[in-house]
Fold this protein.
Amino acid sequence: MQPRGSPAPANEEGPLDGETHARVLDHQNSGVVQGITEKGLYLIRMRIPAGGSSQAPGSRLSFEEGGEANLLGQTRHRDLSVMAQTELNEVVKGILTDLPESCLSFYNRAGNLTLKKHAFTLLPGIGDSKATSMVELRGRTGWETLEALDEACQIDCAGLLSERLCAEIVDRHMTPSLLDHLIRA
């Protein structure tokens, strides 16, 4: 088993392959930035080159070659600063709002997990009757925008999904995992 945060062997893909951008959670005085990747929502550490400007939480950084930051590797939730932990939910919500494809995909495709449990009930505050109502409102075509979804269901779709995803980041053993089945699949 590969140690967390270490590079994958040359012939294996690592979890950060294909990741090019992250959002800032905390820019520390040392120049190290704690962040979260946009595609897979992996917690990472980056370094801003000397002379780089301070980055506010939620700022978007490129860590591709020639980008604003150098990728140092993955990190764990428990190793994040208090500031980074505090900003996590709002930053993930910002990613889902700015890049709505995965958010809309979840709401437009979510189905039953068992005969008595729908995927919508994994979201905080959504019970069986609300999930049934959401499925009826979705119909066959689904929603085209987050705004249409929010209005039809009277929810904050990005906020609810962000809460669930952040809970899974904190507790990697939560099941079923929307991170693994929706975001990182």
About this structure: Helices lie at 82-98, 101-109, 128-138, 146-153, 157-170, 178-183.
